[in-house]
User: Which sequence fits this backbone?
C-alpha cells in the first residue's frame, strides 16, 4: 500500500538526513520505526506527507507517486495518507464530535463546510469512528476536557474520518502514561488488522515495538539498518541504534 | 564542577572588589532621582493641603444644595441615559468590525504581507495613542454636536485598543490544530472557519465585552465636549447651578457604571 523507493533528503547545509531509504507497508500491517533522536525517523514521516520535499526517491501510495505532485493534485493524493502526532492537536473549544468530523473536510467543498459546518452524514460517520476508538459517549463533550489518552484516541478518530489507506503515527504515545500508551498501540494494531490500513508508526519505546509490530525498521543516520519481524530481531541490533557513535 | 568554580573565582572576586560599591552608589542615585521626581510633581500641581481643608465647606455646601436628588425628572433623564449606552454599543460594534481585519494583518503569524503588518500596526497604534476625548473633539468639529461624533470617537479609539488585544490573541493561538487540519487536506477557508475561528471567538467576545464596559464609562464624559449623552446634561445643569439634577445624573452614572461592569464580568465568566 505504501512503498518508499530510495528516498533521500539532503538539507541545504549539506547534511544528509535520509539516504536511499526503502520501505514497504502492506494493507493490514503495522510497521514501527525505531531510532535515536536525530536519526531521521520524523524526517521520514515529514517527507511522506510532503511537509518536507525529498531530494530524491519515490513515495507510492496505492497507484500514485507523491513526490512529484504539487498544489491541488498533491492535496487530493494526500487524502489517502492520514497522520497523527505526539500531540492530539484538537480544537479545544469545539465538541469532540466536531473535531472528529474535521477529518472529512478534505472531501468536501461546499458553502456549508466553508462556513464552519458539516454535512449531516459526516456527523453520523464521525460518531461511528468515535465508537471505533471506544469513546462513543464523549461526542458532545468539549475537546479541551479530555485526558491525554482520550484526546489521542480522538485524533485517531479524526484521522479515520479522512478515510485513509495509510495511517502514519509520529511518536503517538510519547506524552502518555504507560497504560494509555498500551491502549493506543492496541488500537493502532486493531485498525491495521480489521480496517486493512497500512500503519507506519515511529516509536521511542522498544518494548511497545516488540509487542505490537509486524515488522520493526531501524534507522540510524538516515539509513535503514534492519527491517525484521520482532521474532527474528535480536535485541543487540536494536541496542546498536541507540549507541553513540565513537568520538 | 569544582574545577569550573575555582577557575572562575578570581574573576568573580575582582568583580566583587569594585562591583559592590558601584551597585550601592547606583542605588543612592536612583533613590535621589525618585525623590526629585515626586517633589517636582507636588510643586507642579501646586498642591496646597490647606485649600483642601477650606474646600470641605464648599463640598458640604454643594451636597446640601444637591440633596435630595430631583427624581421628579427621572423620565427626562432616560433619553440621555439611553443615548450614553447606545453611543457605547455603536462604538464597540463598529470598533470590533474594523479591528478584526486589522488584527489579522497586525498578527505576525498570520499577516499576509510584511508591509500590511506595519501599516496595520501603525493604524492601531495611532488610533490608540489619541485619547477618546480628543477623538470626540475632532469629530464634533467635523460632524457637529450630538451622539454621532461620540460614537465615532469611541469606534476609532476602540479600533486601537481592540486591534492590539485581538492581534496578541491571534499571535498566542495554538497553531497545532491548524497544522493538523492542513495535513488532512482541508482547504484554507475551511481551516480558517473550522480551526482558527472556534479557537479565537470566545477570547474575542470576552475582549469585546470588556471594551463595551470601558466604552460606557468613556461615553459618560464624552458629553463634556458636546458629544451627547449624560455628560452633556451633567455639564449643562452644572453650569445652571441646578445641583439637584446634577446629583440625579451622578446617581444614574454610578448605577450605569457598576451595572455595566457586573453584566460584562458575568458574561465574560460564562464564556471562559
Assistant:
Amino acid at each position: 500500500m505504501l512503498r518508499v523507493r530510495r528516498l533521500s533528503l539532503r538539507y541545504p547545509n549539506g547534511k544528509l538526513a535520509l539516504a536511499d531509504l526503502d520501505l514497504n507497508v502492506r494493507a493490514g500491517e503495522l510497521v514501527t520505526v525505531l531510532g535515536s533522536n536525530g536519526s531521521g525517523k520524523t524526517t521520514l514521516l515529514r517527507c511522506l506527507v510532503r511537509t518536507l520535499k525529498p531530494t530524491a526517491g519515490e513515495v507510492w501510495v496505492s497507484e500514485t507517486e507523491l513526490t512529484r505532485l504539487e498544489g491541488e493534485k498533491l492535496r487530493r493524493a494526500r487524502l489517502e495518507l492520514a497522520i497523527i502526532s505526539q500531540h492530539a492537536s484538537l480544537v479545544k473549544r469545539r465538541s469532540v464530535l466536531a473535531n472528529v468530523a474535521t477529518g472529512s473536510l478534505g472531501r468536501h467543498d461546499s458553502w456549508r463546510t466553508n462556513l464552519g459546518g458539516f454535512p449531516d452524514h459526516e456527523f453520523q460517520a464521525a460518531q461511528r469512528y468515535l465508537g471505533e476508538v471506544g469513546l462513543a459517549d464523549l461526542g458532545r463533550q468539549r475537546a479541551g476536557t479530555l485526558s491525554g489518552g482520550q484526546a489521542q484516541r480522538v485524533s485517531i478518530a479524526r484521522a479515520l474520518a479522512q478515510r485513509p489507506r495509510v495511517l502514519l503515527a509520529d511518536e503517538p504515545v510519547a506524552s502518555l502514561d504507560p497504560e494509555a500508551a498500551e491502549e493506543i498501540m492496541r488500537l493502532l494494531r486493531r485498525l491495521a488488522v480489521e480496517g486493512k490500513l497500512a500503519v507506519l508508526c515511529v516509536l521511542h519505546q522498544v518494548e511497545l515495538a516488540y509487542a505490537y509490530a509486524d515488522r520493526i525498521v531501524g534507522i540510524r543516520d538516515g539509513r535503514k539498518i534492519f527491517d525484521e519481524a520482532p521474532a527474528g530481531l535480536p535485541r543487540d541490533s536494536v541496542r546498536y541504534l541507540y549507541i553513540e557513535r565513537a568520538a | 564542577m569544582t574545577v569550573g568554580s575555582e577557575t572562575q573565582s578570581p574573576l568573580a572576586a575582582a568583580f566583587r572588589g569594585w562591583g559592590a560599591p558601584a551597585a550601592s552608589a547606583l542605588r543612592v542615585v536612583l533613590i535621589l532621582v525618585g525623590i526629585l521626581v515626586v517633589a517636582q510633581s507636588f510643586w507642579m500641581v501646586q498642591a496646597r493641603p490647606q485649600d483642601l481643608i477650606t474646600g470641605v465647606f464648599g463640598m458640604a455646601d454643594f451636597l446640601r444644595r444637591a440633596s435630595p436628588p430631583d427624581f421628579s425628572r427621572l423620565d427626562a433623564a432616560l433619553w440621555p441615559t439611553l443615548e450614553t449606552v447606545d453611543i457605547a454599543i455603536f462604538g464597540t460594534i463598529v470598533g470590533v468590525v474594523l479591528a478584526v481585519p486589522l488584527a489579522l494583518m497586525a498578527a505576525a503569524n498570520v499577516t499576509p504581507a510584511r508591509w500590511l503588518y506595519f501599516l496595520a500596526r501603525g493604524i492601531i497604534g495611532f488610533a490608540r495613542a489619541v485619547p477618546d476625548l480628543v477623538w470626540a473633539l475632532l469629530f464634533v468639529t467635523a460632524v457637529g454636536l450630538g451622539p454621532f461624533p461620540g460614537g465615532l470617537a469611541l469606534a476609532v479609539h476602540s479600533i486601537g485598543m481592540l486591534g492590539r488585544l485581538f492581534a496578541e490573541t491571534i499571535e498566542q493561538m495554538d497553531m497545532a490544530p491548524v497544522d493538523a487540519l492542513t495535513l488532512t487536506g482541508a482547504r484554507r477557508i475551511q481551516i480558517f472557519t473550522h480551526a482558527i475561528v472556534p479557537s479565537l471567538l470566545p477570547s474575542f467576545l470576552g475582549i469585546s465585552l470588556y471594551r463595551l464596559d470601558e466604552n460606557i464609562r468613556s461615553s459618560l464624559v464624552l458629553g463634556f465636549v458636546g458629544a451627547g449623552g449624560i455628560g452633556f446634561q451633567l455639564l449643562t445643569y452644572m453650569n445652571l447651578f441646578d445641583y439637584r439634577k446634577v446629583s440625579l445624573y451622578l446617581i444614574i452614572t454610578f448605577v450605569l457604571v457598576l451595572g455595566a461592569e457586573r453584566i460584562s464580568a458575568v458574561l465574560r465568566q460564562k464564556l471562559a
Remarks:
- Chain B has two domains: 2-53, 72-271.
- Residues 2-53 of chain B form one domain.
- The interface with chain A takes residues 174, 176-177, 179-181, 183-187, 189-190, 193-195, 197-199, 201-202 of chain B (CB under 8 Å).
- The radius of gyration of chain B is 27 Å.
